[in-house]
Amino acid sequence: MLAFLVAIGYAKSQQPPPTPIERKPTTMSRIDDFIRQQSAASPEFAAAAVQTSLNLETAVAVLQLRTEQNLTRAAFARQIGLSLPTLTRLEAGDIDVSLSLLKQIATATHKQLSIKFT
């Protein structure tokens, strides 16, 4: 929108619009590009990348759930039937998440588990 308004301003003054500023790729875009390239070259890398993404998304969701319930890690670990070290690793994204683990957490917290494909 801002670029559109700037271009209109230049059109009124009969000056050519400015050339677009070249932006350096962000770190995240370079990481995403690397992951895409490596995934295309290696099915093993692609599978590991998908699992890592799932682990990290789950880590964020579990941490948010624990925070919403205002529970310490120890109390939450007892509630969901995990050891404290296991919950700590889960919240750090260091555990390969399974559907059975997600169901266990959902059941213990009386939450509905929702899975979507995007």
Automatic annotation (TrEMBL):
InterPro entries: Cro/C1-type_HTH, Lambda_DNA-bd_dom_sf. SUPFAM superfamilies: lambda repressor-like DNA-binding domains (SSF47413). GO terms for molecular function: DNA binding. CDD domains: HTH_XRE (cd00093). PROSITE patterns: HTH_CROC1. Gene3D superfamilies: lambda repressor-like DNA-binding domains. It comes from the Bacteria. Pfam families: HTH_3. Residues 62-116 form the HTH cro/C1-type domain. This is XRE family transcriptional regulator. The lineage of its organism: Bacteria, Bacillati, Bacillota, Bacilli, Lactobacillales.
